Amino acid sequence: MSKSVVIIGGGYGGLRAVEFLAKHHDINVTLIDKNPYHYLQTEAYGYIAGRFDIHDIAIDLQKWCLGFKRKVLFVNEIAASIDFGKQEVITETKSLHYDYLVIASGAQTNFFSFIEGLKEHSHGVKNLQRAHDFRQEFEDIIYKQLQSEEHADKNEINLAIGGAGLSGVEVAAEMANVIQAYSKTIGDRARAIKIYLIDASETILPGMSSYIVKNTQKRLEKLGVKILTGAFISNVDSLYIYFKDGKKLHYHFMIFTGGIKAGNLNSAVESDKNRIGQFIANQELNINGTKNVFAIGDCVEIRDGEGNMLPPTAQIAEKSAEYVAECIRKRIDSKQIEPFDASVSGMFIALGGKYAVGEMFKFIKVKGYTAYLLKKAITHAYYLGLHLRINAGYKNRNIPR
Fold first, then answer.
1. pTM of the complete model
2. Domains within the chain, CATH numbers bracketed
3. Which residue, 182, 251, 267, 356, is the most exposed by fewest CB within 10 angstroms?
4. 196, HSE (Cβ side, Cα atoms, 13 Å)
5. What is the pLDDT of residues 168-211, one digit of tens each?
6. Which residues, in sequence order, are CB contacts of 25 under 8 Å at separation 6+?
7. Partners of residue 60 on adjacent β-strands
8. Strands 27-32 and 3-8, how do they pair?
9. Contact between 253 and 160 (Cβ < 8 Å)
10. Residue from 118, 38, 36, 42 nearest 77 by CA
11. Tell me, what DSSP letter sits at residue 291?
12. Residue 58 neighbours by CB distance under 10 Å
């Protein structure tokens, strides 16, 4: 008898879970997402700076699911709540029964409430709409500078990025690289656009290796990024970012990448959660004392076998998805399940143009064009896999559901 698996969330973890579960002839999969597309958030830095187009960072989920023929159903609705007793996911228009449930609903930008005005005056990059807004703003700034007849010193424009973690650093580097490229054609008017990278930590990329931090800092400085570390933001208004030491920075536009919190579904689900609303799961990534409900990716606090917190990255989302897919297969077959254990295999940071810094397996360290090629190869392999499924979905679009 076939089992029904419902997956909430079409992000990196959700799609990887679909891929692994749809291989089995006795498992039917339903994917639920409020958006009709998969957003490649790891490539947001290039889209914001205008180097990538929309088709480089968004994939049609309906066509992708059709690539599995009858095996995967896509429901383009908000998953509003879960009834654990009835084993149902409640959306805006229907209730979907599950034998197994995978929650991969992701996270959203945490605009800290203790920083007055932050949410009202800054933009996140965790959703496509906000990334699109900033891309348009950045392009508009470049265009206005092209048209400007004023000297650069009289027309300085400051773009601020709050948070010097992975996302903030990549966005800052790519924008700064674009500005350098434009300075060759529009001169000082392009150099009048200043990029400020702000973090309360004493270093950029807190928690990462000294090799990555040191080489990233060198690259950012070479690109002209103004790095403000140990800088605590007290409040933000429409003109200035105010710091706790009494200083202030006049800015034109602000991105905030300084933290995440769980999405709205977590708030509607009765289960143990941490201070940012992520589910607290057991060693098999089950929540709420169940054996058939799993949480993966950014919506859950994930730890390795020794209890160390793992970072909320696409890599960990995919590893947790693969583990959960295997767990479901073993539960169906009444086989023993080992606790989840994973580690970060490597890290690559795009630093503008054809330059990156990276580490693999803790001992392979690369930078510059070589690191860029390795990162590009990894991204291309993922993107190609999605598009092969999309092409199959396009061919299968007239198959009755």
1. 0.91
2. 3-109+260-344+377-395 (3.50.50.100), 118-256 (3.50.50.60)
3. 267
4. 22
5. 999 999 999 989 888 877 777 787 899 999 999 999 999 899 99
6. none
7. 37
8. parallel
9. yes
10. 36
11. S
12. 18
